[in-house]
């Protein structure tokens, strides 16, 4: 491993495998196919790339979507056949991985910050794109115009979905919760329980009590339940703080089966958490560079994370050519399995 | 009573006789191993806390501390980390660890009548001494200097040398170590050293029972300085604070304080806060960062929050928006 930070990365994460031919600039988002071990990564070098991960961890680059500006988001369709990526060129571009066909399926008036495939009413597959033009647009992928435009009132910063749940975070710290059985109006719009800019969202619907997890730039994470009777169970906790420094919580990924989740921050650390027992399951040492995005694969056996500068110290700390990598970790079930409630550790 | 002056003594769990590298680890160990509710697994900070929890939440009487050595299952002794460990056991453990009966008594006493000048003088010497041996000499005498009258020892400034061994603790300790300077009839086992400055000054004296873990130095309870707040310890079977038997007659009103309120820093001794900083390694250094905006939510967080700051603090604009403005990433419409 001969990279700028190779020694650090190798020393602390030596068991993790690095994807070959990584992007030349920071990864903005990682997404695993829900059907197979394909991973897509959108990056600031204007490309969204797709790799196939073999059974032994060796990976092969398969395809790429070319943007005319940095790609900011990527998501796989629910059937695992399509990849949608949005970027600063204000375009949502979709690649059909079965046919190799590429097309622009979404357009905004400003960069597309976040995108998700969701299942709308009648099992119709919808693409949702959120943009800094303060709108969220729903596309059925057949028409040129969106089937629905939702006015966020502020710039879209982050979005995540799971099952019928879609949660959008906007620049005014509002959280727009959608039930995709009724995409035309939000189920609920709430102020973020966190006092600072919403940075990451992870939805969970696997457990009996659906909800979502919000991370802010102030190293804090909120578990927010949705159902009325669960609302009071919501709670927040601090994370990704090193001594006196408080880092952004850049990414939240839920494990597909256990319902536990990961957080990753600008501090370069990843933690696994169990929200039921309110316990940290695993803390990984810092990789020495910000983690920009994370993802679990469909069966939760692989955890992917991207290392790269996330601009949290602005341009002056930007080192062109510095480390960019996508790492794959074979998930040790003992690290991510929920632990029995009640043995909470002191944090 | 937990005396924190033995720097060479590793944090050690009284319940199971195990040593730890770090006091934090010890705290966690005790929470997990000994203070965990057997019903719901909730971890408490102390045995007393566990008893109250079991009683109030589960309506059960908790009589024993789990995973404890035989004879140490009592929930009556309030132990938190090394705080509250019976002195005899602590000493026994210490002897065992240090491989012999070497008593490493530190200077703890200065029960002489001093004038402010003397005190200042001694402060200087004390500071020098501190610098030479940072852990050398904490735990000065408590409270206002009593008159030399009741004490048979040489009046001004008898004390024990910092780091010096020289006095044998009498027998098993029914009383905590300061006991020897209780006004006795008998001679003091330690020898006065008139030439030596006392190892401390009365006013900020940490009564040996008060100092928690690493916070020896300034007295704990009323001090708002950083560090992990310890749970209050109800008076258990632990011996009463040793200073109560002290004859309180103050010859120097300015420097004598009633025992309970004895923690005030006397304005007359400006050097005290400095020394506090020297002797209290856990006191957070002064807040440095001018770039440290204290955020509202942080002000509600726990100790030491005053100087934490967000690495990225622009609440209104995301990093991606800023990054996208960079010419390198610019998008031309054509």
From TrEMBL, chain A:
Family: Belongs to the WD repeat rae1 family.
Native species: Spizellomyces punctatus (strain DAOM BR117)
InterPro entries (UniProt xref): WD40/YVTN_repeat-like_dom_sf, WD40_PAC1, WD40_repeat_CS, WD40_repeat_dom_sf, WD40_rpt
Keyword annotations: Repeat, WD repeat
Gene3D superfamilies, per the entry: YVTN repeat-like/Quinoprotein amine dehydrogenase
The protein, known as: Uncharacterized protein
Residue ranges of coiled coil: none
One Gene Ontology cellular component: nuclear pore
PROSITE patterns: WD_REPEATS_1, WD_REPEATS_2
GO terms classed as biological process: nuclear pore localization; poly(A)+ mRNA export from nucleus; post-transcriptional tethering of RNA polymerase II gene DNA at nuclear periphery; regulation of mRNA export from nucleus in response to heat stress; septin cytoskeleton organization
Transmembrane feature ranges: none
Protein origin, superkingdom: Eukaryota
UniProtKB/TrEMBL annotation, chain B:
Compositionally biased intervals (Pro residues): 209-252
CDD domains found in the cross-reference section: SUF4-like (cd20908)
Keywords: Metal-binding, Nucleus, Zinc, Zinc-finger
Ranges where the C2H2-type domain occurs: 35-58
Residues covered by region (Disordered): 199-262, 281-303
Classification via InterPro entries: Znf_C2H2_sf, Znf_C2H2_type
Gene Ontology terms, MF aspect: zinc ion binding
Residue stretches of biased makeup (Polar residues): 294-303
GO cellular component: nucleus
Compartment annotation: Nucleus
Name the record gives this protein: C2H2-type domain-containing protein
